[in-house]
Amino acid sequence: IGGTVGLVTSRNNLGQDVYGRTNNILISPEARYHIDLGDNLKFYGAANIGLGFGGTVGIDGNNRTEGNDISTLDFSINPGVLFTPGSKVGFNFELNLISFNRYAVSNPNTNTTTITNRINLGINTFTPTFGLYYILGN
């Protein structure tokens, strides 16, 4: 059992006085089940749920305009391999197998919300993840 907490920020028109900025806070708990393939190698299945909250702002010099509110919901089941060369350090490689993504953008000025739902089925080799782990406990 573990998880991820993150902040994602992006900006367009770098170096300009007029630009847009997007900020999102992400929280993603995860559960894994490991199967030993040897002393230092494990195969695992991971399930996680990701929640994201944030929004956009427009900047024109010293003027700030609030933009859209953004929320995301992700669910995925992923296979992976964990290699532990030492007793406390591990490296993993993971591929997306099944995932659902809900992306909602709400415009407070027009009181409208646009929702995009996406389901991915099958091994996705275009979005592998790599990780470095420090293993707590014994």
Task: Please characterize this protein's 3D structure.
Strands 1-2-3-4-5-6 form a six-stranded antiparallel beta sheet, with no helix packed on it. It has one domain. The two termini are 16 Å apart. It is mainly β. It is built from no helices and six strands.
What do the pLDDT scores average to?
89
Shape: elongated
Low-confidence stretches: none
Helix content: under 10%
Strand order of the largest sheet: 1-2-3-4-5-6
Termini, distance in Å?
A: 16 Å
Q: How many separate domains make up the residues? A: 1
What summary fits the major beta sheet? 6 strands, antiparallel
Sheet-strand content, in percent, reads over 45%
Q: How do the helices and strands follow one another from N- to C-terminus? A: EEEEEE
Give the helix tally.
0
Derived structural class: mainly beta
Question: From the alpha-carbon coordinates, what is the Rg to the nearest angstrom?
Answer: 19 Å
Helices and strands, with pairings:
Blueprint lengths: L1 E10 L6 E19 L4 E20 L2 E21 L5 E19 L4 E23 L4
Antiparallel strand pairs: 1-2, 2-3, 3-4, 4-5, 5-6
Short description:
The protein is an all-beta fold. The protein is 0% helix and 81% strand.
